[in-house]
Amino acid sequence: MKYIRAGIAALALSLFAHGAQAFDHTHQAWNTLLGKLVVVNKQGTASSVKYAQAKQDHAELKAYLASLSAVSPQEYAAWAKDQKLAFLINAYNAFTIELILTEYPKLDSIKDLGSFLASPWKKPFFELLGKKETLDGIEHERIRAPGAFDDPRVHAAVVCASIGCPMLRNEAYVATRLDAQLEDQMQRFLRDRSRNRFDVGTGTLHVSKIFDWYAGDFDKGHRGFDSLKATFGHYADALADTPAAAARLRRGDFTIDYLDYDWRLNDAR
């Protein structure tokens, strides 16, 4: 009986420990940080980051990053698809802020952290899913891997700490609301006239360079989009300022021009 009780106690302790270490899919720690650090403009279409505040709250950021790094490949493999994607988007955005803090405030752009031979996105400066990882590794080898998620809206969600990027959301991505969050991000990004706008007079749709870099992701038929023009037609109401302009976009009666990208740091100071 003594050994049975001891075995039960050991099992209970093991289960408790496992439960205590289970990953928080609400990403509450990251959600709290974002609420403090992200400043959204009045139109709700762009945001900036309080990097000086992030330095003060660095211990909180590091604790969240440690929770991401602690997830094993086996644990990740058992998750639902939306849990995986929310995890990867949040990881990309959080580790990007960590990268900025390594040299802040001595930089004006994330590009200052790289060189001609070494891209900042290729720096293996953190651990994720059992290996040394890079920001490019998260985005291109995991999020954009063929057959993994196949959702081009992710390009409105991963944020490279630059003014030209889509806004950093002031809340964490979570599996239970991921589809709605991604759709909202896409709408907000396309409504930002500093980065996407339709010139009715010339029939030219001026859009972010992101759509040039990742045009192929919008050509694959995912979510019903088989081309950039079809994507912009679907989001015509977000891109146009009048019903007539929206109708023209839906007809595909426009040409596409890509705007220069603003790599300046999205700093709230």
Q: Unreliable segments (pLDDT under 50, ≥5 consecutive)?
A: 1-20
What is the N-to-C order of secondary-structure elements (H for helix, E for strand)? HHEEHHHHEEHHEEHHHHE
Radius of gyration: 21 Å
DSSP strand tally: 7
Largest sheet at a glance? 3 strands, mixed
Q: What is the percent of helical residues?
A: 40-55%
Count of separate structural domains: 1
Spatial order of the strands forming the largest sheet: 5-6-7
Shape: globular
**Number of helical regions:** 12
> How much of the sequence is in beta strands?
5-15%
Distance between the termini: 66 Å
Chain-averaged pLDDT = 92
The SS-based structural class is mainly alpha
Please tell me about this protein's structure.
The protein is mainly alpha-helical. The chain has one domain. 45% of the residues lie in helices and 9% in strands. It contains 12 helices and 7 strands. It has helices spanning 2-21, 28-37, 51-56, 58-69, 73-77, 81-101, 135-143, 178-191, 210-213, 228-234, 236-239, 243-251, and strands at 38-40, 47-49, 126-128, 131-133, 197-199, 204-207, 255-258. The strands form 3 sheets. A 3-stranded mixed sheet has the order 5-6-7. Strands 1-2 form a two-stranded antiparallel ribbon. Helix 4 packs across helix 6.
